[in-house]
Amino acid sequence: MSVPYAEALAEFEPVIGLETHVELGTASKMFCGCDTTFGAEPNTQTCPVCLGLPGALPVVNAKAIESTIRIGLALHCEIATWCRFARKNYFYPDMPKNFQTSQYDEPLCTEGWLDVEVPAEDGVPQTVRIPIERVHLEEDTGKSLHVGGATGRIQGASHSLVDYNRAGIPLVEIVTKPVVGTGARPAEIAKAYVTELRDLLRGLDVSDVRMEQGSMRCDVNVSLNLPGQGWGTRSETKNVNSLRSVERAVRSEVERQAARLRAGERIVQETRHFSEASGTSSSGRSKEEAMDYRYFPEPDLVPIAPDPAWVATLRAALPEAPSVRRQRMTTGLGLSAADSAAMVNAGVLDLVLATVAAGAPAAEARNWWLGHLAQAANAGGVDAADLSITPGQVAEVVALVAGGGLNAGLARQVVDGVLAGEGSPAEVVTARGLAVVSDEGTLLSAVDEAITAAPDAADKVRAGKLAAAGALVGAVMRATG
Ligand code: ADP
Ligand code: MG
Ligand code: ZN
Question: Model's pTM, two decimal places?
Answer without folding.
Answer: 0.81
